[in-house]
Specification:
Layout lengths: L1 E8 L5 H15 L3 E8 L4 H6 L5 H14 L3 E6 L7 H8 L4 E5 L12 E2 L2 E2 L10 H6 L6 H16 L8 E4 L2 H9 L9 E3 L18 E5 L8 H8 L5 E5 L5 H10 L3 E5 L3 H10 L2 E4 L9 H8 L4 E4 L4 H4 L6 E4 L4 H12 L3 H18 L2 H13 L28
Parallel strand pairs: 1-2, 1-3, 3-4, 4-7, 7-8, 9-10, 9-12, 10-11, 12-13, 13-14
Antiparallel strand pairs: 5-6
Helix pairs in contact: 3-4, 8-13, 11-14
């Protein structure tokens, strides 16, 4: 099968970029012909912003690439800014089927995260136009830019641009449901669920030598950093924090005042892997609707249980008292109680949690499972004579793929 991927890179690398590369490498290892049509927002500028409703340059570039490569199917990951929805019309003009992975909530709200000033912002799910989001300036605190992004999406909803997409790939059931209850108007028959995957890593089921809990991620408010810090403040339980972000100075201040909190800064993939080897559990305290939560899967692959907030997709991935523990979002006292509960659990119970965490990975998030699901989605869209066998035989080079990081 010939598969053309289309993706717009943000100014800073993120999880979407890693997912794209993982899927391309996976399909290549299976013998498919894969090419990428890339756009980028490094030089975003006023021109790209003004052309958000329809970018003629992206349209022509896409038509040329489709004509040259002659794909059986096109897989879109991100169109934001540089590519624009004009790409969809270029693909459809060639009568090529297309699928789109939904990585965020940008088609529902200009915020893209359904989060604003410390809490969930769901006003944009109802109503025909997100006026509340515009008035608040949820995108970069700008009423004007927020309006333009909202207007661009609204226009394409009105002319049914996204009806031209054959399948929408959601990373979890919760995100799919948000789209279905919104005014976006997606046909449920076009919605499929395929979580991201992680290449298998070396795992040890041995009892942990050190007793520390671990947070990995961007240091932002929506990631629940304040909840995390308050839960471990004045505690005797050791917490290690890996990551960078706008709240770095806050984390450093807490670490200086509390000897049990250790700030590690940005860590490499190899360093994160080593940290997970020795962690008691991963803390995942997000207070927004994560579209997936790749860090949780990284922990499961290492047989590390997860303590996470009972919210959105996290409560789907983590089953309370099975592969982790759940707590009320934003409730630092309850998080503290869950940490203490796990900390004082018998060794045999902790071992059971670790076994269940590893089983969750093996049953849901391996490359083998992902390949089967992805090819099944493609096969449901392409003409009958292009249908391919959904076998899996990874090449040795695939084992070198980088572990995806959650942004």
């Amino acid at each position: 099968m010939r598969i053309l991927f289309i993706h717009t890179y943000y100014r800073l690398p993120g999880g979407e970029d890693a997912v794209l590369q993982n899927e391309m490498d996976l399909l290549t290892s299976l013998g498919h012909e894969v090419e990428l049509l890339a756009f980028d927002n490094k030089d975003r500028g006023l021109c790209k912003l003004l052309l958000m409703p329809f970018n003629p340059f992206s349209y022509r570039k896409t038509k040329a690439k489709v004509k040259e490569f002659q794909p059986d199917i096109v897989h879109i990951h991100n169109l934001h800014f540089a590519a624009s929805a004009s790409v969809i019309y270029a693909i459809r003009s060639a009568k090529i089927p297309m699928v789109m992975t939904i990585h965020n909530y940008r088609l529902l709200c200009p915020s893209a995260s359904l989060f604003y000033k410390g809490s969930l912002f769901l006003d944009s799910l109802a109503g025909k136009f997100p006026w509340s989001a515009v008035r608040k300036g949820v995108y970069q605190n700008s009423i004007l830019i927020t309006f333009w992004l909202a207007f661009s999406t609204y226009i394409h909803k009105k002319i049914h641009t996204y009806d031209l997409v054959d399948k929408f790939i959601f990373l979890n059931p919760h995100s799919k449901q948000l789209f279905l209850v919104s005014t976006f108007g997606v046909d449920e028959s076009k919605c499929v669920i395929k979580p991201n995957y992680l290449l298998d890593t070396k795992v040890s089921m041995r009892p942990k030598k050190d007793t520390f809990f671990l947070f990995i991620g961007r240091l932002t408010e929506e990631k629940g950093v304040y909840t995390l810090l308050k839960a471990f403040e004045d505690s005797s339980i050791w917490l290690k924090i890996a990551g960078i972000g706008p709240l770095q100075s806050v984390v450093e201040e807490y670490a200086q005042r509390n000897s049990n909190i250790e700030y590690l800064g940005q860590q490499s993939r190899e360093e994160v892997s080593c940290l997970l080897d020795d962690a008691e559990a991963l803390i995942f305290p997000s207070i927004w609707y994560e579209t997936f939560g790749m860090t949780i899967v990284e922990a499961f692959a290492k047989a590390v249980p997860v303590i996470t907030s009972y919210l959105g997709n996290m409560k789907v991935i983590v089953t309370n008292q099975v592969n982790g523990l759940l707590f009320e979002p934003g409730n630092a006292d309850e998080l503290r109680s869950r940490v203490e509960e796990f900390y004082t659990s018998p060794v045999i119970l902790k071992s059971r949690f670790r076994q269940n965490a590893r089983a969750s990975y093996e049953q849901n998030y391996t490359s083998e499972i992902n390949a089967i699901k992805l090819l099944a989605i493609y096969n449901s869209c392409v003409p009958f004579h292009h249908i391919v066998t959904m076998s899996y035989a990874p090449s040795s080079s695939q084992a070198q793929l980088p572990m995806e990081r959650q942004n």
